[in-house]
Amino acid sequence: MGRQDEAERRPRLSEAQRLDWLRLIRSENVGPRTFRSLLNHFGSARGALDALPELARRGGAARAIKVCGRAEAEREFAAAQKMGVWFVALGEPDYPRRLEMIDDAPPLLAVRGDAGHLSRPMIAMVGSRNASAVGIKFAERLARDLSGAGLMVVSGLARGIDAAAHRAALDGGTVAVLAGGQDCIYPSEHIGLVEAILATGCAVSEMPLGWMPRGRDFPRRNRIISGLSVGVVVVEAAHRSGSLITARRALEQGREVFAVPGSPLDPRAEGTNGLIKDGAALVRNADDVIPVIEPILGRPLPMREPEPVPPTADETWDGDAAARVRALLGPSPVEIDDLIRLSGAPAAAVRITLLELELAGRLGRQAGGLVSLI
């Protein structure tokens, strides 16, 4: 069975289900990991929505949790449709397979342009906003060559290296990952660049329409950039930069990391030189990238099977078990498996307790399945 046939066998949400998914991910204290836990536990977004207020109350919320209303979600749907934006759900045929593999994949991806491009192999290119002329020239040449080799170039639409990579890859197609909503392009001078990207590629975002990006939204965007890609090329990056965050997320996600060397006297090369020192593949041209990723692209990726419908909250909630789990939690991250083992509580009871605390704004989740009290 070919990849296209396999994709078409994957189910699509009904319009009612898609609206419920949008309501759930837009509800207070529900992030991608919490969304997945809720869906796995209750079997549907509708069941999770009904349970949110009681879960948050049991978790110790000081006030009622804000659940996204149907009218609010319908307004976002209508505005998105007017813009030509479609919400692609995790597990649907058009959802990018590599992005689906990360543990905090967006449940709904707002896509403008042709979503079919998201099934193509992708390589990310990121770097300094305050890029040097040499860095921009190299990024343009590398993006053009990688695009010519059949790869979609993914970047974050920022000034400098990101914009150079997008422009150089326009003919072959490029993907822009937005930190804000589809109607809130940042920086604003790149609105025209987005329009050019849409002609041969697409723009994606997990944020609501009308959402202007804030500082903390850019690291969230960066995990999508690396998650979409088979590897990440860092062209220029200072010692502390968003590009290094993207590289770190790429490593956490099992992606290849490439770095372009630069002068030791240029602070914009400090981060990339450090990546090479730590083991990143050195890049002089596209020939340093393509042979590394070709074997990866030649291996089929495991597809996720649908999750079984789990029991309801009332079947798994146990007040004594919840108290034991809460007593074990603190500010230091701990593995969920350790909570199950040390509390002696059923796994389902531990998970529902964690959901309650998270929806009450009292639990944080980190990469690798770790949790801690906030």
Describe this structure in words.
With 374 residues, the chain is α/β, with parallel strands linked by helices. The chain folds into three domains: 3-83, no CATH class; 115-297, Rossmann fold, CATH 3.40.50; 313-373, Winged helix-like DNA-binding domain superfamily/Winged helix DNA-binding domain (Arc Repressor Mutant, subunit A, Orthogonal Bundle). The protein has 17 helices and twelve strands. A nine-stranded mixed sheet has the order 1-2-6-5-4-3-7-8-9, with helices on both faces. Helix 9 (191-200) links the parallel strand 5 and strand 6.
**Strand arrangement, largest sheet?**
1-2-6-5-4-3-7-8-9
Helix share, percent: 40-55%
Name the average pLDDT. Answer: 90
> What is the beta-strand fraction?
5-15%
Beta-strand segment tally: 12
CATH class call of the largest domain: Alpha Beta
Largest sheet: 9 strands, mixed
Q: What would the principal axes of the Cα set say about the shape? A: globular
Given the structure, what is the number of helices? 17
Question: Which second-level CATH architecture of the largest domain applies?
Answer: 3-Layer(aba) Sandwich
Give the C-alpha Rg.
Answer: 21 Å
Taken in chain order, the helices and strands follow as HHHHHEHEEHEHEHEHEHEHEHHHEHHEE
Low-confidence stretches: 299-316
Structural class: alpha/beta
Distance between the termini: 47 Å
Assembly state here?
A: single chain
Number of separate structural domains: 3
Q: And the CATH topology of the largest domain?
A: Rossmann fold
